[in-house]
Amino acid sequence: MEQANQVPKIVTSRIGLEESWGIKTYLATGGYTALRKALTTMTPEQVADEVSKSNLLGRGGAGFEVGRKWSMLKPAPVRYLVVNGDESEPATFKDHMLIENDPHQIVEGTLISAYAVGAARAFIFVRGEFALGLERLQAAVNEAYAHGAIGRNIFGSGFSVDLVVHPGAGAYICGEETALLESLEGKRGFPRIKPPYFPAVIGLYGEPTIVNNVESMSNIPWIVNNGGASFAALGVGRSTGTRIFALAGHVNRPGNYEVEMAKLTFRDLVERPEYGGGMRLGRQVKAFIPGGVSAPWFGPDQLDIPLSQDDVAKAGSMLGSGSIVMMDDHTCMVRAAWRIAKFFWRESCGQCTPCREGSGWIEKMMRRIEQGAGREADLDLLMDACDNISPGVAWPPQQTTICVLGPSIPSSVASAIRMFRDEFLVHIKEGGCPYE
Fold first, then answer.
1. Tens of pLDDT, residues 60-106
2. Integer angstrom CA distances of residue 424 from 70, 118, 337, 361
3. What are the structural domains, with CATH classification, of the chain?
4. How far apart are CA 221 and CA 244, in angstroms?
């Protein structure tokens, strides 16, 4: 992950070091100095102020300002902090990397954040399939307890907090913060209606709760050590600091790359030799997904859009989870959209009718077209079904369901039909896929 412009590695600086997941390596590279600084030289309000100055945007998908979210926490005798490490978005693997390779950084960021928001207890919710990551994260928590970084009277500061690692049950919907809280409470992962169940007001066990992403927490130690202004000096506009982008698909060098936000374009990330290294086999870009499979697709004419929250939003999509999926000119776009629709159908929790029923109808129609048994009328029928799930089939989507899973279903299908309608017609008229 070498960076040509010498931008500091904020969250991946230890990746590749020997036993980067152990406390010995963490302490040798400045670990827990930020926690000690925060607890012994700063008030909780000062820590929160530095995070606000950084303008750190949440790295889980929604891109909401972390400092602003903290400021919305309702005053109460008991508060909780929950770290979302579920990361179930297809082709997204940045949090998984951080959990496996630098768990102490997540732990330290969580402890500092718990101090800043006055949390009585903190939880790190990790997808159950991350077996090695869970093992290393729990070992890191145990080491931090032994080091005196977690527990009673941490570093003699008078601040006390306990930290629990909780394996999730492996459902995509548990990446949605209120469904995550339901799962953490031992119930089925059904999203809660907002309002009234905004976590900052009514969260875990009915108490005010902050839910932040793993990568968001990993930024906190650097911000405390270097100041919020230093973080805000990186990037452009609202897109400050660095961010990990999980580059996947038909590129020569898929992987996680930490880059300065808004200073590179999608083309830079795909083509530069230190990042994606170009498309495989010298093929051309046909389309790409800029922010996880929930996001509307972009075409090759949009490769020069900066990796910026606002620029991508203006172009009609989102950076979302930080996952970029490249598709070359040999890709069947009908099959790609069908597989995404099938994923959403399988992962719908079934609580809301538009999502539960609509996802199934869309998957059936897409499968029929892909298998060569489709009808031309199916294209209008598909768009009509998409419109019923998310009126207008526009971005950002309109809500007809409790959470955003439902309105995310039309993104890939509508993008494929709008961009590659001729390809659908070939499937229908010729009774099969031309890429077989």
1. 888 899 999 999 999 999 999 999 999 999 999 999 999 999 999 99
2. 47, 54, 11, 17
3. 23-232 (3.40.50.11540), 235-328 (3.10.20.600), 333-430 (1.20.1440.230)
4. 16
